[in-house]
Design brief:
Strand 9 (about 215) and strand 10 (about 220) form a beta hairpin. It contains 3 helices and 11 strands; from the N terminus they run H-E-H-E-E-H-E-E-E-E-E-E-E-E. It has a 5-stranded mixed β-sheet, with no helix packed on it. It has 2 domains: about 5-90; about 95-235, Immunoglobulin-like. About 40% of the residues lie in helices and about 30% in strands. By secondary structure, it is of the alpha+beta class.
Length: about 240
């Protein structure tokens, strides 16, 4: 038969002391572990917070950039609509073409019995005439001098344009020729106009620039811009 020995009070004390020692060792080890890991957790948490802040900033900037073009785009659209509206109302549909020498003597003159003034200084002159919407007209302008030498010298310093509502007629729409009258040599520029609509109000302009002082054999003309505006009313 086995025999069991009961623990004495001395044995019990030894066991309790051993258990307490083990618990103490575990406790010390735990707090030592926490002491080494806590700073790491704090650093990770701080890093995550900083990264979150970095992510938020671009979102705010993106919203601002998207709003700005929308506000800017509204203004040019409204301005361009007003310009188109004004332009459409201002320009009538008048046709032009280069006439022949025969056309020049066949079709009526736009100016009729009106004569261009002959200013000797840069200036702007205006004329008001009526035309029939059913007819085509020769619109012409001339420069004269006492002989061919004077005329050639004058023309070398004159730059001339015909305008319809301030839009130039290209050289393909013009015809140039010369005549001699009463001792004067004259150079003509001409175009043929048609396509009038009833109650059309059209501004036609002869615009020329004299680059230096010129003499036609009788009169002296100063350099500068000379303008003849013809306001035409079609009936």
């Amino acid at each position: 038969m086995s025999k069991h020995r009961s623990l004495s009070s001395k044995d019990t004390a030894i066991i309790v002391t051993s258990v307490i020692g083990v618990i103490g060792t575990i406790t010390v080890a735990y707090f030592a572990y926490r002491g080494t890991t806590a700073p790491l957790e704090i650093a990770i948490s701080a890093t995550q917070t900083a990264e979150s802040n970095k992510i938020v900033v671009p979102v705010v900037i993106t919203n601002i950039v998207q709003d700005t073009p929308t506000k800017i785009a509204l203004f040019p659209t409204s301005v361009s609509t007003q310009i188109l509206s004004t332009s459409t109302q201002a320009v009538p549909e008048i046709s032009y073409s280069a006439p022949s020498l025969d056309n020049v003597s066949t079709f009526p003159s736009l100016m009729g019995g009106n004569f261009y003034q002959n200013p000797s200084m840069p200036s702007s002159v205006s004329y008001h005439i009526n035309v029939s919407m059913r007819l085509s007209y020769i619109w012409r302008f001339n420069w004269c001098a006492l002989n061919g030498n004077y005329l050639g010298n004058n023309l070398s310093q004159i730059s001339l344009k015909f305008l319809i509502e301030d839009s130039g007629i290209p050289s393909q729409g013009m015809y140039e020729y010369r005549t001699s009258e009463s001792g004067w040599e004259c150079h003509f520029w001409a175009t043929l106009l048609n396509g009038w609509t009833q109650d059309d109000k059209v501004k036609l302009t002869v615009l020329y620039l004299i680059s230096g002082q010129i003499f036609d054999g009788k009169y002296t003309y100063e350099p500068g811009e000379y303008r003849h505006d013809i306001f035409v009313f079609a009936q």
